[in-house]
Specification:
Length: about 140
């Protein structure tokens, strides 16, 4: 005579395991972008920049110029956060050294350019606000 009890018991144990997984919420965090994944997408695109995120007026890109920064002034205010590498940044004829982790604000329509940057240089670019930029004074709360 064939016994079905072991198979039934296995089925019941399987149901208990599945029941435990139902209590775990699996989510994909769409508000997080990992730098290595974005950099891989950028390299596969064969472009110098790609858009990686958008919400309301905020647009986020990853930018990696190839030897020369060919940017022109933009209609919106923008923020750069240097992701990797180092170099120099020119904003309206004023030059500063930059490195990974640095934050740079550029008002709408301002002339700016990265120069003398390393081959591994890349930066997050955040465009936001209305065309022509936001009104108001700049406030930097971190001493130089």
């Amino acid at each position: 005579m064939i016994q079905f009890y072991p198979l039934y018991a296995l089925f019941m144990d399987f149901r208990k395991i599945i029941g435990r997984f139902k209590k775990i919420k699996f989510t994909i965090m769409i508000n997080k972008i990992e730098f290595p994944a974005a950099l891989q997408m950028l390299r596969e695109s064969n472009k110098e920049f790609i858009k990686v995120f958008e919400n309301g007026s905020l647009e986020v890109e990853l930018y990696q110029p190839d030897q020369v920064d060919r940017q022109t002034p933009h209609e919106k205010d923008e923020v750069y956060i240097v992701a990797s590498g180092k170099g120099k940044f020119v904003l309206e004829n004023e030059t500063t050294s930059i490195k990974a982790g640095d934050f740079i604000f550029v008002p709408a329509r301002a002339n700016h350019q990265f120069i003398e940057f390393s081959s591994d240089f890349s930066t997050w670019v955040l465009f936001y606000g209305p065309k022509e930029g936001e009104e108001g004074p700049l406030k930097n709360f971190v001493p130089s």
